[in-house]
């Protein structure tokens, strides 16, 4: 598996980004990196008992690229990629080979 990269916003960049914001609690991660799993999704993932807040799980996902964008303006270039998760699994942080087995299981 590829090395995991922390997406946490650098503390100095975070202060600069939200300096003029009225938000009391400034997010530690960029908008859009949060995934909400409803009852149907939890059931499909086999999570019968909800994990405790603060529990770390491993998320392995296959995604489809749904859009790409590159724009240039006087301030510079901006790029973005939108992804749709098509297959995923959640496991305890120190997961074994079952991640691959679940990810590539035949439907």
Protein traits:
107 residues; extended; single chain; 3 helices; two-stranded antiparallel ribbon; alpha+beta
Descriptive notes:
This protein is of the alpha+beta class. It has a domain at 35-103. It is 18% helix and 32% strand. The chain is built from 3 helices and 2 strands. The protein has a two-stranded antiparallel ribbon. A hairpin with a 2-residue loop joins β1 and β2. The two termini are 22 Å apart. 1% of the residues are buried.
List the helices and strands and how they pair.
Layout: H1 11-17, H2 39-44, E1 57-73, E2 76-92, H3 98-103
Antiparallel strand pairs: 1-2
Rg result: 18 Å
**Overall pLDDT confidence:** 82
| Number of alpha- plus pi-helical segments | 3
Query: What percentage of amino acids are in beta strands?
Result: 25-35%
Largest sheet, spatial ordering of strands:
1-2
Question: Helix coverage percent of residues?
Answer: 10-25%
Order of helices and strands: HHEEH
The helix/strand class is: alpha+beta
Distance between the termini: 22 Å
Largest sheet: 2 strands, antiparallel
| Structure summary, number of beta strands | 2
Shape: extended
- List low-pLDDT spans: none
């Amino acid at each position: 598996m590829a090395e995991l990269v922390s997406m946490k916003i650098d503390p100095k960049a975070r202060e600069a980004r939200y300096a003029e914001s009225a938000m009391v609690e400034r997010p530690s991660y960029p908008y859009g990196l949060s995934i909400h799993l409803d009852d149907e999704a939890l059931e499909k993932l086999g999570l019968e008992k909800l994990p405790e807040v603060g529990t770390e799980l491993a998320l392995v996902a296959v995604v489809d690229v749904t859009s790409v964008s590159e724009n240039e303006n006087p301030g510079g270039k901006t790029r973005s990629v939108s992804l749709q998760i098509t297959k995923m699994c959640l496991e305890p942080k120190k997961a074994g080979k079952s991640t691959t087995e679940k990810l590539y299981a035949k439907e």
